[in-house]
Amino acid sequence: MAEQITERPLVSVDLQETEENRGLINAIEADNPDLVINHFPGVIKLQAPGRLLISRESVEAQLGRTWETHEFQMAIITLSGNVSEWDEDRIVISWGPRVDDEEDED
Amino acid sequence: MTTTAPNQAGKKSAGKPKKLSMKARYSALTRDLDWEPSYVSEQEMYPHTQYEGIKIHDWSKWDDPFRLTVDAYYRYQAEKDKRLYSVLDGFAQGQGHLTLSEAKYLNAMKVFLSGVTPLEYAANRHFAYMARQFNGPGPRFAALCQSIDEMRHAQTEIHTLSNYNKYYSGMHNFIQQHDRVWYLSVTKSYFDDALSAGPFEFMIAIGFSFEYLLTNLLFVPFMSAASFNGDLPTMTFGFSAQSDESRHMTLGLEVIKFILEQDEANVPIVQEWVDKWFWRGYRVTGIVAQMLDYQLPRPVMSWKEAFELYFEQQMMGGLFPDLALYGIRPPKHVEQAIWEKDHLSHWLHDTFYQFSHAANFTTTVPDEEHMEWLSQAYPDTFDELYRDKWEEMRKLDEEGKRFTYPGLPQLCQVCQIPMTFPQHGNPHLKAQFTSEYEGEHFNLCSDGCKWIFEREPEKYRQAWLPVHQIYQGNCGGPTIPDVLKWYGVQEGDNGEYVGSVDQKNWVRWHHQIEDKLGTSSEIEETLEAEGVHAAVKKIEEA
């Protein structure tokens, strides 16, 4: 059985290795200081302890154009963790209890 | 259509006037399109969401983290298809089928096309049903998107692989074979089991257990391997499909948390489904295990490594500690799956090797280089337990006595895999489990399958077991040629790879490309008279 996790479990995002995703990955790297990057053929695996942030502003700065957070769907292969936030400014993937989001209440 | 939109506009998007925030758009385009029925009761409108015992008090608590709206959905899906089809064009125009590492690589794709692609179509159908039957607009819309995704996956997979079907054997009859061929009943019956469950159980079975827990093991290392074996189109459709898969995984996780949060009484029901569907799904992924370790001429990641990374680290280390907060523990029998990671692919490919004369793919003994890789990937088990068997098979083959198993195997009543699995913890002892139900005797491969059988014997007693069906006379006749004819297997589809139609063509085509030596006719003669080994040797000498 799995040992008790003492440190924060890793969240993970696997991205396609494409020209455009380079800028995206640079942006994620800049925003997540503990990021670990692994390469497999065609795949780049990004892992971070507990939480991973993708910020529109950072991605746009890297790509030199406007970027919608929805575009992240073009890049992603798989993830491990909860998508705890996804709005026009950022995407957050994390483990842990989910935070209630008042804006969703109709 | 909506009354809430104007008030919320511009709330969070000062730089982009006139545009609703993503959350407001999501709310306007999904939630606000829902209505309360007045001519019929809610229960009459959604009659299938009560009988499983799951209690839902507030459907509006369902949250789609992707906040996907219909316009965004189609825009991005169209872009994904455009990218894929430009790769397919390049493939067809550039003789892409010759860039593969070796013709035998396609055996993995034959298994994929006949084993997995029809499941995508089955998922399309059933998610369309979910999109009608769930009471809440959030899950209905998410299910609708997934339904359309699954159709896209089935179509793009068939379309991509049809390019290989022009040149190679074994892919021409995959739909019928999915319904008939012995090992394909493993994937088919798995999905049929889920389709014939209630809507909530289906969501835990496919949305959670398959998509979230296990689909990474199917797609990610496998598509990475396609890239590594020169199969650009498969890599592209794989990643294109997998980009939808991350949405499906999120839906699967969302559904389980939603159900668990709605009522405490749901927890034990969900736990049983997690237990059942983990083991069902894990047994199916055994087919992937043998593909990764044996069917790729250039292996990229072993089953063991993939299992450790995508299951043990991400699921046992990340997901289940998270689900513990909701009262869910890791699935029953997971220790056995963890133990089996050192063995699974070796058992199953051994079975595939011995029965490939009755399948839609070819197999061959791994060469020395491949065995060396296996030995490094499995330092604790391969040399000690499995190398000797392959050496023996190679010896028999060299003596002209290529081994195929002369009989038919007993299948497990639940997972339908031949009962070649050892006991948990003891690779030297074959596992034999049995169960009685209403005077009938049933055979099972493991504690996990026995537990599943005994939970619902009235369901699993009805299993369509290919071997039993052959013996009952329902599969074209009593001999292997009769059955193969009924399977739609043609010459070149099955048996030994070395000397097969595909291998001979491979040698011919590659020689033609490199034909600056003027020895074409000589090679052709050697190929016909002395076989593939001699022809390859001659090419190398030239």
UniProtKB/TrEMBL annotation, chain A:
SUPFAM superfamilies, sorted: Monooxygenase (hydroxylase) regulatory protein
A Gene Ontology molecular function term of the record: monooxygenase activity
A Pfam family reported for this protein in Swiss-Prot or TrEMBL: MmoB_DmpM
The family this protein is said to belong to: Belongs to the TmoD/XamoD family.
Name of the molecule in the record: Phenol hydroxylase P2 protein
Organism of provenance: Raineyella antarctica
UniProtKB/TrEMBL annotation, chain B:
Renumbered residue ranges of the record's region Disordered: 1-21
Keyword Oxidoreductase: yes
MF terms in GO: monooxygenase activity
A Pfam family this chain is assigned to: YHS
Highest taxon of the lineage: Bacteria
Coiled coil: none
Protein name as annotated: propane 2-monooxygenase
